[in-house]
Amino acid sequence: MLPINTPLETLMKADYKAFIISGSPDSVYQSMSCTCDPKLFDANIPILGICYGMQLINKVFGGQVMEGDTRQDGIFQIDCDTTSPLFEGLSKQEHVLFTHGDHCITAATGFKVIAKSSSNIAGIANDEKRLYGVQFHPEVDLSTCGLKILENFLFNICNLKGDFKMSDRVEFCISKIREAVGQNKILILLSGGVDSTVCAALLSKTLDPSQIIAVHIDNGFLRKNESLRVIESLKSLGIKVHLINAGLRFLSGTTMLHVDVMTEALAPASVSPAKAQSDSGISSGTSDETSDPNTKECRSTLDSMTYSQTTDTSNTKRQSHVSGGGIHPHVESRNIPIGPLRTVTIFPEDKRQIIGDTFVRVAQEVWTELQLDPSSLMLCQGTLRPDLIESASHLASQRADTIKTHHNTTTLVQILQKQGRVVEPLSDFHKDEVRQIGRQLGLPEAIVNRHPFPGPGLAVRILCAAEPYIERDFSETTSLIKMISGYHQMSQKPHALLNKINAAARPEEQQRLSKITANRSLAAYVLPIRSVGVQV
């Protein structure tokens, strides 16, 4: 998997036999949209464009692409030209997944339409150049014909052979571990899930037992008897597990959130741009890493194996360009403390960040307790390809948006990665592939088929609060919903809150509410908790 803007020269040196251009949220007409080396299409190498990839191919060759009146998202039926080598063996009608806003209006010169939905072009082909495009997503299970399409492209059109076996993937992981670890010791944080257990099995197959330090951290948010299961399952692999009960640490966990804030400041006319930037701690056009408290905090943590929380936000990075007196906008990079987990934290993304950073801090304390050499110790993680994609890791994409931060791709882990001290043998695989690797390694089905359970555990799924959360309007809101639940009886006499309800409800809604509450005994309560809104 490579960035789309990889130069053709680099691609040709690697001797790739085919290319697939994947989807993207971009539009081919955006000035900053991602695009490939234009010489790629003249390289006489088969190319399949998926969604955005099809639109890009069509535009490059002169076809028309336009923004649609409405998006197409969901499962749609398409009509297929089964004489096309791309659709060989398919039915004339197939169901596929669309997720796009732009549409190909006309096919480029030299291309023919090989698939249509009710209103749009769904597939194009230039058999002579071996260039193909589909507007839908054959790589997902919801496109039931997708696997067959990919097989047709790779095996029939590109003349490749499917001789890469599961044993090859296992050997790939083993060589990856052996090359990265050498004779060093490696720490693996075990959650008990499929990913970390498969990683542990790979380590056991590759390294001497004396090199492996397996640690299971009970964060207090795991499934019932989870820790006992972890220890017993890995004991069968010959791996001794160090159990760390750190539930209270996670409940009181905090971290720093790095944010850029647009603000304004009053600058005297005598202050030059260079001086304004010098006084604020940065040089023009550069970013001094050491002036960032978050980075300093992380680095000192790794160097000293201790962690000290910083709440001083006065040392901020300011980017100003003052040309004279008056008020000028500028950006301040601030480090905002978030947490502790048990009280004020309600947002899942904040919880993931707190729990991920706390995991690494606890692991660093384990290094010290076990008298390990932190300068040579490696960290093994069960990071999968989707984890990197959702966290917008540069290892997966140069231009990804963060979907959610995973506990194993946090700031502290990223610093360890820069030092070359993180081993992620499963980072090229998806969950179904990891399960297959587990079976190849001989793991029991009870482990391989375990239901996915995130590292942060129940902390993301439950409300973390030690005290009731009561706003100033709590009493009025409580009275209001009680009046709604007993509307028929309450409407018999005037009340200020009754007027508020009637003002918000249409006459027919008032009649229906009265009818419902007349025949039923209803009770309504406002919970004294604060949570992220849920739409049902």
Automatic annotation (TrEMBL):
InterPro entries, per database record: Class_I_gatase-like, GATASE, GMP_synth_C, GMPS_ATP_PPase_dom, NAD/GMP_synthase, Rossmann-like_a/b/a_fold
Enzyme Commission number: 6.3.5.2
Domain of life: Eukaryota
Keyword list, A-Z: ATP-binding, GMP biosynthesis, Ligase, Nucleotide-binding, Purine biosynthesis
GO cellular component: cytosol
GO MF terms held by the record: ATP binding; GMP synthase activity
Stretches with biased composition (Polar residues): 275-288, 301-317
Renumbered residue ranges of the record's region Disordered: 270-335
Functional pathway: Purine metabolism; GMP biosynthesis; GMP from XMP (L-Gln route): step 1/1
Binding-site positions, ATP: 191-197
Cited Gene3D superfamilies: 3.30.300.10, 3.40.50.880, HUPs
The UniProt record lists the keyword Ligase: yes
Protein name: GMP synthase (glutamine-hydrolyzing)
Protein's organism: Schistosoma margrebowiei
Residue ranges of domain GMPS ATP-PPase in the record: 164-450
SUPFAM superfamilies the UniProt entry points to: Adenine nucleotide alpha hydrolases-like, Class I glutamine amidotransferase-like
